[in-house]
Amino acid sequence: MLATALSPGAALHQRCGALTTGERRSRQRRAHCFRAATASGEGAEAQADALNKQHGIRGSVAFLAGPGGLVRAVLSHANGTSAEVHLHGATVTSFAQSSGDEVLYIRPDAKFDGSKPIAGGIPICFPRFGPSPEMQQHGFARNLPWSVLRTSADLRPDDPEPCVQLRLKDDETTRAMWPHAFDALYEVTLRRDKLRLLFQVKNNNTDGQPFDFTCALHTYLEVVDAALPTVKVTGLKGCTYLDKVPDPKSPVRKTETNDAVTFGTALVDRMYLDTPTEVLLEVGTGAAVAVEHLSGWSDTVTWNPHTTLPECWTNFVCVESAKTQPVTLQAGYVWEAEMTLAVIDLPTE
Fold first, then answer.
1. Which of 70, 149, 303, 315 is 20 to 30 A from 241 via CA?
2. 55: enclosing H helix or E strand
3. Which residues, at least 6 apart from 191, have a Cβ–Cβ distance to it below 8 Å?
4. Which residues make beta-bridge pairs with 240?
5. Cβ–Cβ under 8 Å, residues 45 and 37
6. Are 78 and 160 in contact (CB under 8 A)?
7. What percent of the chain stands above pLDDT 90?
8. Which of 218, 292, 306, 336 is catalytic?
9. Calpha distance 67→35 (Å, rounded)
10. Burial class (CB in 10 A: 0-12, 13-18, 19+), 228
11. What spatial distance separates the first Cα and last Cα of the chain, rounded to whole Å?
């Protein structure tokens, strides 16, 4: 499908298998860079200090180093909400309400040392969503370091909105897996009551060649207990979906006839096509997380591993903003997609 393109120059379930040559190179490069940084003293603390000097905004945006050697940007709103995004994979790892309640979920097997994608939060799947013969599952974007392009905080004294914009550009590692020149920009903005995520991809091929990609924001949302019928996704009735449970390589096409998708009885792995602008995940507390697609994203993926992840499946449900059918992007053009997360109170009966 041809992308809805902006004008040229416009602003910008893990499965085992053999590693591709590009993936081996990627892992070797990350390990080498991490060891070199630690040995030379140019580690996470020094990186965070440098970023704070260049991009930190007092009271709104700060950069912190973690014990595993990764740096994250921390966004703080005046109303007490906060968000965190790691530079490794540009993975959003926290969106906390002013009460301290966390919206996102980090799996207990998550690694914060750069050795693999962070399991949980909101990993970015790009330039592939799902398995690919060219590269690792869900693409390379969630497994490479992103750079900080800019920060801002809308310097209005009553309601600043902290924001960080990250960038991933093609290099030898990415071209070994996907032979294209590109810029990917990811803008994370903390609003008073929402987390806004803007993802942009630009085709920089100088030979004029278009490229195809699929992508998603693989959002893990914390719930009370996914086994309960009160934990459910609504807003998808009547939508066509591809059911990957019988055979991930040959999904079965179905139509959603239920008012809600629940997760207590079996594995759920569905790609809903051409979904409504807003989908709700009722988390079991009398509140829901509204996942809103403002542009670009056309599909919604729901996933819960059930007992295939016995240690944590009851703690989360994935509601993912996705583009599951290939986007064809012409050289010099930009594709963008915007999503917001917000916590809302459900009406009482």
1. 315
2. helix 44-55
3. 77, 161, 340
4. 255
5. no
6. yes
7. 81
8. 218
9. 14
10. middle
11. 44
